[in-house]
Amino acid sequence: MTILEAIQSRRSVRKYIDRPIDKALVAILQDKIDEVNKAGNLHIQLVTDEPRAFKGKMAYGTFSGVSNYFAMVGKQEGDLSERIGYYGEQLVLLAQSLGLNTCWVGLTYNNIKEAYTVSPGEKLCCMIALGHGDDPGRNVKRKTASQVSNASDDTPAWFNDGVAAALLAPTAINQQKFHFEYIAPGPDGIHRVKASRRFSLVGYTHLDLGIAKYHFEAAAGKENFEWI
Ligand SMILES: Cc1cc2nc3c(=O)[nH]c(=O)nc-3n(C[C@H](O)[C@H](O)[C@H](O)COP(=O)(O)O)c2cc1C
User: Which of 9, 34, 25, 33 is nearest to 128 (CA)?
Assistant: First the structure.
């Protein structure tokens, strides 16, 4: 499965069956964790066979059967939330391509301190539930390209493809508070894209933006533009 196919087929899944993740798949995910932790200066950890984080009243009954998750940890500095989103989504899409399901989780989990390490100066931003889904997830309504960008018949096809992929990104409560603006080349001939956040009372807009930017890049092609 390509990244674009994973983007198309991913849905948030909240119900999982009681089946451990194959050791070979854990090894592939661990390699990718090592890669993104290095690239993004993060401390993401994969926790397996640990059912307590998503049990009890903290889980509000939304999740069931979760016993594997990524603990999304990083040093508390500048753009941590956006980096967690940008690199975490790479793990989500890899998991999807391996036949696993995921759900980003902002609040509804218990903090199981002995299951992962949060060193001094680090922060646990959120979790990503992981496993074999018991249902395919649901189709949620998305915004249109014109609501989140200046995409038009006049903007390049790669930009419009990027916006289409960003619209499929998971966001907290499906808020989609991001915006992509295409800026035509000046004398230097470089196409530029400005990605920004819109106001939200719920928060998580930095994290959502990181996720959406990864989707955008994957479809638009990093070689076609520079971020502003
Ligand atoms: C940062 C973030 C936090 C989220 N937190 C939760 C959560 O606490 N509980 C939950 O059920 N879903 C949570 N979600 C999943 C979103 O509700 C979901 O991505 C959105 O409704 C779009 O659906 P989709 O992922 O199936 O496309 C979260 C998603 C993101 C990106």
Answer: 33
